[in-house]
Amino acid sequence: MNDFPRFPPGFVLGAATASYQIEGAAREDGRGPSIWDTYSHTPGRVAGGDTGDVACDHYHRYPEDVALLSDLGVGSYRFSVAWPRIVPVGSGPVNPKGLDFYSRLVDELLAAGVEPAVTLYHWDLPQALEDRGGWRVRETAERFAEYTAVVADHLGDRVPRWITLNEPWCSAFLGYSVGRHAPGAQEGRGALAAAHHLLVGHGLAVQALRAAGVREVGITLNLDHHLPATDSDADRAAVVRADTLHNLVWTEPILAGRYPDTEEETWGELITGQDFRRDGDLELIARPLDFLGVNYYRPIVVADAPHRESDPALRVATDNRYAEVPMPGVRRTAMGWPVAPGTLTDLLVELKEQYGDALPPVHITENGSAEEDRVSPDGAVHDTDRVDYLRDHLTALRAALDAGVDVRGYYVWSLLDNFEWAFGYDKRFGIVHVDYATQRRTPKDSYHWYRRLIAAQRP
Prior knowledge:
Elements: E1 12-16, H1 19-22, H2 35-40, H3 58-72, E2 76-80, H4 83-86, H5 96-111, E3 115-121, H6 127-130, H7 138-155, E4 161-166, H8 168-178, H9 189-212, E5 216-221, E6 226-228, H10 233-256, H11 263-267, H12 281-285, E7 291-295, E8 300-304, E9 322-325, H13 342-355, E10 362-366, H14 384-402, E11 407-413, E12 432-435, E13 440-443, H15 445-456
Helix pairs in contact: 3-5, 7-9, 8-9, 13-14, 14-15
Pfam family, one: Glyco_hydro_1
Catalytic activity: Hydrolysis of terminal, non-reducing beta-D-glucosyl residues with release of beta-D-glucose
Protein name: Beta-glucosidase
């Protein structure tokens, strides 16, 4: 156990999941359809034609999954609430059976000594709201605040840590620009409007959570560490554009109360003259937070790519004149992502240098790797590469703490193998293997390693 990185007293070691990825029960107990139900049932959208209709059947098997968390010894479990399970059409009548499910889950966690942490939006927007414009329109942000108030009123007395949005970059740009996530749109201005309204929705949700009196409020961003492919001025300028798209579009409004000063260089006329920004929005978006959630998996190496679509009507928001290129000399996960743990340290240190005292305490709300897992003849899953990945990234996190970054927690992604969005069930991130045909759970070697690491933190 002396080989494990050690963390300060009170440091949270947890595990994370998301509603659409594990719950299943897509049409049970009054749940309405989400954009991911629609997207995954559209031919050609998801690998293998997979859907989240059943997923890990967590809706029915949550006591078994909470028992795994208890055995693991985690201090906290981060899960998301499915908006269409609570408000089936996004606004209007509340579904009591949906609230009851999450109430039972929270009580089960507390009885097991595991602190619940709730994410309010992990991408499963009610389809009825998308039909009215989705995140492109301000109404969705307003409905999100109403839904937040309902959930906080029901669970706020038992849940101490709340996350408004998970990875709004994916919602805005993979969903409305690249089209690889639900709702599958490919737009320029629509994606930028979605990004802004996600931020407005976050600000309104913070207001609602504060009014409900919850203890801790934050947001989770998937921040990327960008490296230039060469030392050329062109590649370094491409890094600035990539950093604007992936990071600054979120961190500048939330932490500094301003829009990025590089946004016109990045988006040109797509960002100018837009009426989705209103007076007072920045003050709303920049309301103080108790923590910042950071999801981190890999660095991105960027090279200049000079082409840009000349017609703004046809340009997508991610057409920013750069290209991601391979990182040489490192292992890649099953996602094709480079493994470079030290870049987690670099990202956190640079974030602290950039925002200083405006940076709240940080929780790493997701970190993990997809690997080519197989159940061995002995019935175990010997995922050595994942163990190495977790050990090295937790060591890098310890280095960030030593460098003065106020990091308070770490959540492994993910507790369970699950529906991995457009990759369907082909990619496995879990520290617990799931046989989707039988729903049998098998803790992997990484589960047992993480269990020993948690035990090693005890006095």
